[in-house]
Amino acid sequence: MAPRRSRTKKTTLLSHTRPPTVRAKHATLSSKATRNLIRSHHRLLKNRAQALKANDNLLIERIDAQIRENGGLEGYQLASRLGQSLERGGDSSKVLVDWLSPQLSRLQDTKSKLRVLEVGALSTQNACSMNHFLDVTRIDLNSQEPGILRQDFMEMSLPRDAADQFHIISLSLVLNYVPDAIGRGEMLKRCVTFLRKPPLSGSSFHITPRLFLVLPVACVKNSRYLTECRLRDIMSSMGFVLEKSKETSKLIFQLWEHRHDLQPASFKKEVLRPGKMKNNFAIVVKR
């Protein structure tokens, strides 16, 4: 009898885990309603991913109905846009532009620009989009306005050369949207492939490629499976060095420089911070 071949499970694409979209019911939401809608959407997505893994189609339909009742993906995006609106001081790209100011100032007398890939873009009017020294490519699974490409980052064609790569990649409240731990690890590894190292076009100015990462603070500070030390170890294995970090009551902002080659390492889902009140956010990396 021929030996059975082991099958490698293909990483689930983001577009295959998102529920159907429906038009949002409300044009405006209070700050409290915005937070509740975002939390509810993430909780339902987590439950949906578990049901998908268990092939429980009945439960998937029930969860999809709940998501539609909450306004679907468009309702979630409305809440996210409101949360990041200028009126509420929530544009995370302002932090990125501020942190990049030393590099941007060196472009004053040149025609060069830094290429930025903004994954999960919600607006064409945020701080990085309005900066003249940044050439921003915006993508999202469910584009809400012209100037944002409808594209799953995990399905983007791999770069053929430096022209297809970017100096900066922004993952602002994107990694936590990925419904499973393995998918989060794959997304981080994929970022390395899309970062470019050659000097700017038409210039001898070199810039170390960077990844801008924004996560809910609870993902790092209150998870039983992820700590600041574990996140640093994961990023280090991929060649990243933490350049800047900032924390608010709700979010953690980080800017990672990509200085070294990828050093394949595995990180499994294991309890690092025990406790009944801890959440289950995790990042799993496979070689």
Give a summary of the structure in a few sentences.
It comes from Aspergillus caelatus. By secondary structure, the chain is α/β, with parallel strands linked by helices. Helix content is 33%, strand content 15%.
Any overview of this molecule?
With 287 residues, the chain is α/β, with parallel strands linked by helices. It has two domains: 54 residues; 167 residues, Vaccinia Virus protein VP39 (Rossmann fold, 3-Layer(aba) Sandwich). Helices cover 33% and strands 15% of the residues. The protein is built from eight helices and seven strands; from the N terminus they run H-H-H-H-H-E-E-E-E-H-E-H-H-E-E. The protein has a seven-stranded mixed β-sheet with strand order 3-2-1-4-5-7-6, sandwiched between helices. Strand 4, helix 6 and strand 5 form a beta-alpha-beta unit. Helix 2 packs antiparallel against helix 3 and helix 2 packs across helix 4. The longest helix has 23 residues. The chain is globular and about 60 Å long. About 6% of the residues have low confidence. One of its GO terms (cellular component) is nucleolus. S-adenosyl-L-methionine-dependent methyltransferase that specifically methylates the N(1) position of an adenine present in helix 65 in 25S rRNA. Keywords: Methyltransferase, Nucleus, S-adenosyl-L-methionine, Transferase. Belongs to the BMT2 family. GO terms for molecular function: rRNA (adenine) methyltransferase activity.
